[in-house]
Design brief:
- By secondary structure, this protein is mainly alpha-helical.
- 72% of the residues lie in helices and 0% in strands.
- The longest helix has 33 residues.
- The chain is globular and about 70 Å long.
């Protein structure tokens, strides 16, 4: 049997940055109702610190960390497929079994813990991505760009509908149904009615059973997420496959190429996102312009910005350094860390825990992010010094292989690629 390849250090490092960045992106979705995610003005005029926090998050973090994580998911998926073939296993069976169990984890996460799950979505898109796994780099990039274009067209159509529905709801003689439909759409883009604010805060401050019942009856399921953001996620995964095959994500390119990509990707991306943020602020976070900003304008900018982030992380990495080792360990345990942050944050904010839902300002929420990220850095490496996998990584691997995997022994002396 061919030995399993060693892990690729750059992938773990980038994944570690991404999993901590995802927490920073998601913290508003933990601490506030869903309608507050896109705008700081959903429950009143924002304070200056809240506006700064929102603007910084929009420019630097939102969408980029999810995209970076999707890049890494595609690359890791390809590693698993390649390893299965090298070991004489059927790659489709190995891959689809992993996606099936990931879907189970995601559904449990979605309905039992938190509405913002991405695992079930990744499982469905990842299963589809297998079709493209054998394409050459050029085709992976081409199909990925087509996916981003499709997503942009789909979201632009939704934005056009938003403007049309607003106009219809504000015409003289508009029917009650049209007005209600507009308000439902406005709720989603951060312009909720007072009744919606009161209702959503009460739900978040309720008991666990009430929250589960609400998610089951009102939450967006994985099929909804697949139709809403599936093309973009698939595009990112294909870019990740191309990044692995081309050597970009493995650190094989020259420092000059990484520098150019980092400067252009981050520089151009941040300038454009800053302009979009200013556009949103200038329009007073009107729901129509929030939809335009977040959907039609931001979506096509993400791939280049994400590439810039990946290049910058590879450039700044210091092999053997304390911080690099800690961030890489957090990335190696990204599954455990991702679900662990959900448990911590829902316990902190929801009514069955400490009940801080809606009690902190947006700026104050980021004070929660720092200690949780530090916790990831502090616990991941000591755990992997003693065990081969993170706890949930071990469970996922064991279930996917229908056999309990060995757990004892340092992960850093074990050849694994998944």
């Amino acid at each position: 049997m061919t030995p399993a390849p060693t892990r690729i250090a750059t992938l773990d490092l980038i994944r570690g940055v991404a999993v901590m960045g995802i927490l920073a992106a998601n913290i508003a979705a933990f601490g506030f109702p869903e309608f507050a995610y896109m705008t700081p003005a959903s429950m009143g005029a924002p304070s200056t610190p809240d506006l700064i926090a929102w603007t910084t998050t929009f420019i630097v973090i939102d969408g980029k960390m999810r995209g970076l994580f999707s890049f890494l998911f595609g690359a890791s998926m390809l590693l698993v497929i390649d390893r299965a073939e090298a070991n004489g296993e059927d790659p489709a069976t190995v891959h689809l079994r992993r996606m099936a169990w990931l879907f189970v984890f995601g559904i449990a996460h979605l309905y039992l813990l938190w509405w913002g799950d991405i695992l079930a979505h990744y499982a469905l898109v990842g299963a589809l991505a297998y079709i493209f796994a054998r394409l050459p780099v050029r085709w992976l990039i081409g199909v990925g760009l087509a996916c981003i274009a499709l997503q942009t067209v789909e979201l632009t159509t939704l934005v056009a509908y938003t403007f049309d529905l607003h106009a219809a709801a504000h015409r003289p003689g508009a029917t009650a149904r049209v007005i209600t439909n507009w308000q439902l759409l406005a709720d989603q883009f951060g312009q909720p009615s007072p009744a919606s604010v009161t209702r959503e805060l009460a739900i978040g401050r309720g008991g666990w059973r009430d929250l589960v019942a609400w998610r089951w009856t009102h939450g967006a399921g994985p099929i909804t997420s697949l139709t809403a953001t599936g093309p973009e996620t698939l595009g990112f995964m294909l870019f990740g496959m191309a990044g692995l095959r081309s050597g970009f994500l493995t650190g094989e390119w020259s420092r000059r190429r990484y520098t150019v990509i980092a400067v252009v990707g981050i520089g151009l991306g941040w300038i454009c996102y800053a302009a979009i943020a200013a556009f949103d602020i200038a329009h007073g976070f009107d729901a129509r312009y929030v939809a335009l900003s977040w959907l039609a304008l931001a979506t096509p900018l993400r791939p280049l910005t994400i590439m810039g982030y990946a290049a910058a992380i590879i450039l700044l990495a210091r092999p053997g350094g304390w911080l690099t080792a800690r961030v890489s360990a957090a990335g190696r345990m990204a599954f455990s860390n991702y679900l662990g942050t959900t448990v911590l944050c829902t316990t902190l904010f929801y009514g069955y825990g400490f009940g801080l839902y809606g009690a902190l300002s947006r700026a104050q929420l980021y004070l929660v992010v720092v200690p949780i990220c530090l916790l990831m850095l502090l616990w991941s490496k000591p755990w992997l010094d003693r065990f081969c996998y993170g706890p949930l990584e071990w469970l996922w691997r064991s279930l996917s292989r229908f056999a309990w995997q060995p757990m004892r022994g340092s992960a850093f002396t074990t050849n694994r690629s998944d």
